[in-house]
Design brief:
Largest sheet: 2 strands, antiparallel
Number of strands: 2
Structural class: mainly alpha
Distance between the termini: 17 Å
Helix content: 40-55%
Radius of gyration: 17 Å
Strand content: 5-15%
Strand order of the largest sheet: 1-2
Protein name: Mitochondrial enolase superfamily member 1
Order of helices and strands: HHHEEH
Length: 116
């Protein structure tokens, strides 16, 4: 799973606070899969993540029209790419749990991805 997530990183996304661009992680997928898998497994078992993974740089991105209007901006959180990969692993585990245990009734599937 880690290899697949790294291989499919969007290289057009911004780098994290550590200055590592997603393209670097994508290009080094074969080298990084094993060490990152160990880190993710340890995080899962201990229920702890590195402190840096909890930090985000929040920036305002202008949506459209008047730049003077604060309502025309949206916040974007820039986090570390390895943390984003960990989030995807956790999301996948949650979604499979929801699907396998029929946690959400069919009438509540409005906000679920079509694949689940």
């Amino acid at each position: 799973m880690v290899s697949d997530l790294l291989h499919h990183l969007d290289t057009h996304k911004c780098m994290g606070l550590d200055g590592i661009h997603p393209r670097v992680l994508r290009e080094l997928t074969e080298v990084l899969t094993k060490p990152l898998s160990i880190i993710y497994q340890q995080c899962w078992l201990t229920r702890e993540v590195p402190v840096d993974w909890k930090l985000a740089n929040v920036m305002s991105i202008h949506k459209k029209s008047q730049k003077e209007d604060p309502g025309k901006y949206r916040p974007v959180s820039l986090t570390l790419v390895p943390a984003k990969v960990m989030e995807q692993i956790i999301l996948s585990a949650i979604m499979w749990h929801i699907k396998d245990n029929q946690v959400i009734r069919p009438s509540q599937h409005g906000f679920m991805k079509a694949t689940f």
